[in-house]
Write a structure and sequence with these properties.
487 residues, mainly alpha, Growth Hormone, Chain: A, 4-stranded antiparallel β-sheet, 6% strand, heme binding, heme transmembrane transporter activity, MFS
Length: 487
């Protein structure tokens, strides 16, 4: 048995010294890690029986272990996330069809997308509190059931005077989006090892992007009719199919989804378990919103993702403005952006797990996102074939940025709960998304795609400048290195 004791950095309590005790057992290759809170009245760090008592913080089994079931948990979450994200764009990607069927204007159709953002900003704090208070399983159960219920409600909306029913169902699904977007970094931190966490976060975000991809692709493929009767018939396949899929997923989550593994997957996860025991939720939020680097990251992240939301929502109108008569290809272009973007997400996560170069990676992704949007703007002006190519470039970097922002926030704000920092980033994204979607919808309808895209490019440039000046210590990485596994 090899033992090591480390004094950890102080985080919130100046009267407490944190001592990490790690031991390596060569017989079974197990690593034990215990965090001891040493107060001024303590004459020495813990030893012997004192250590055994502290180990009970981990249920008497502090050994760090990776479980194979972590992959199943992640896949199940990805499917649940995809089922929610699919419904975000299932109406706005066929704006003209929905406007014709319900006899409403384009902005009303885009409200089916905007409602996701309207409910997220005020709902972020209670959703983050629920995650911290009740854990992953309860949060995912609530979100999965609500996503199914919202999809079920929309099955009763297939009549020209039932748009309000569509909005009721869409609002229910949007509320459940609160229990999706902030979870990937939390699932990664709770279930995955220190060398997997960025990749796991990227895969978690991939699930959401997979749903967006199908939201871009399937509705235009299925709903091709031009009459109200034909549109109603074809929408039946979309809404009933969605309800069936989300219902099956809710049952799967109810039966199989687990809150956390019996033993922590990494030293940093073991430390976080102890460090977060006494964390007050509102105090944690106060710490996050007063951290200058976190504030700058929050704004730059919100701008980047807000621009992505705006492009996704008004893509149908952009294509109609640039290439009249070719609106049907909007779904294909959106799918390309998302599919290639999921590859970008996983590649970026893999690079971070190998290099831990967060700042450089984020700045590179942001810069190429900006260049990609300029290329997208020019392509819409000149050539439809070029739009497909540039869309792939834009998607790889802009969508690839999504999970990296979560991981960077978790690093620079450790040991604050990952769900809190992710919730703040997502609230910023929804805030900017609301503003940019409203402006983009009005601009593209009145002035065309070029002024709209120039406005989005200018906004993204502001975010790029902020990203260039964001600095932050990799606190989670430092904690891991201080108590790293040894042989």
């Amino acid at each position: 048995m090899t033992e090591r004791m480390e004094v950890l950095p102080k985080f919130n309590d100046e009267d407490t010294t944190l001592v990490s005790y790690s031991s390596f057992n060569s017989d079974d290759d197990s690593v034990a890690c215990v965090i001891y809170k040493m107060h001024p009245s303590d004459s020495s760090p813990p030893c012997g029986n004192d250590l055994t008592v502290d180990m009970k913080s981990f249920g008497g089994k502090p050994t760090i272990k990776l479980y194979n079931k972590r992959f199943f948990i992640l896949i199940l979450f990805c499917l649940y996330s995809a089922s929610n994200a699919f419904q975000w764009l299932q109406y706005s990607i066929i704006t003209r069809k929905i406007a014709t069927f319900y006899q409403i204007d384009d902005l009303s159709v885009n409200l089916t997308s905007l409602i996701y953002m309207f409910v997220f900003v005020p709902g972020m704090i209670p959703a983050s509190w629920l995650l911290n208070r009740f854990g992953l399983r309860v949060t995912v159960l609530i979100g999965s059931f609500g996503t199914f219920l919202g999809a079920l409600v929309k099955c009763a909306s297939l009549a020209p005077d039932k748009f309000w029913v569509t909005m009721v169902g869409q609002t229910l699904v949007a509320i459940c989006n609160l229990f999706v977007l902030s979870l990937p970094p939390r699932i990664a931190a709770v279930w995955f090892g220190e060398r997997e966490v960025s990749t796991a976060t990227s895969i978690g975000v991939f699930g959401n992007q997979l749903g967006v991809c199908f939201g871009f692709f399937l509705p235009p493929l299925i709903v091709t009719a031009v009459t109200a009767q034909g549109i109603a018939y074809e929408l039946t396949f979309v809404v009933y199919g969605t309800a069936a899929f989300t219902g099956l997923l809710f049952i799967a989550v109810l039966v199989f989804f687990e809150d956390k593994p019996e033993k922590p997957p990494s030293n940093s996860a073991a430390q976080a378990t102890i460090l977060q025991e006494d964390v007050n939720f509102m105090d944690s939020l106060r710490i996050l919103i007063t951290d200058l680097n976190m504030v700058m990251l929050t704004i730059s992240y919100g701008i980047n993702v807000g621009v992505f939301y705006a492009i996704s929502t008004v893509l149908d109108q952009m294509i109609a403005s640039a290439f009249p008569g070719y609106e049907a290809v909007a779904g294909n272009i959106g799918a390309i952006i998302t599919v290639v973007g999921t590859v970008g997400s996983m590649v970026s996560g893999y690079i971070l797990d190998k290099t831990h170069r967060y700042q450089e990676t984020i700045q590179a992704l942001y810069l190429f996102s900006f260049l990609g949007l300029i290329g997208f703007t020019l392509a819409l002006t000149f050539n439809l074939s070029m739009v497909y190519i540039v869309s792939a470039f834009l998607g790889f970097f802009m969508t690839g940025y999504l999970p990296i922002g979560f991981e960077y926030a978790a690093e620079i704000t450790y040991p604050q709960p990952e769900g809190n920092s992710a919730g703040i980033l997502n609230a910023s994204a929804q805030f900017f998304g609301i503003i940019l979607i409203f402006i983009s919808t009005l601009v593209v309808d009145r002035f065309g795609h070029l002024p709209c895209n120039l406005m989005l490019c200018s906004t993204l440039l502001v975010g790029l400048i902020l990203a260039a000046f964001t600095r932050g210590s990799l606190k989670r990485r430092e904690a891991t290195m201080k108590t790293k596994e040894f042989s």
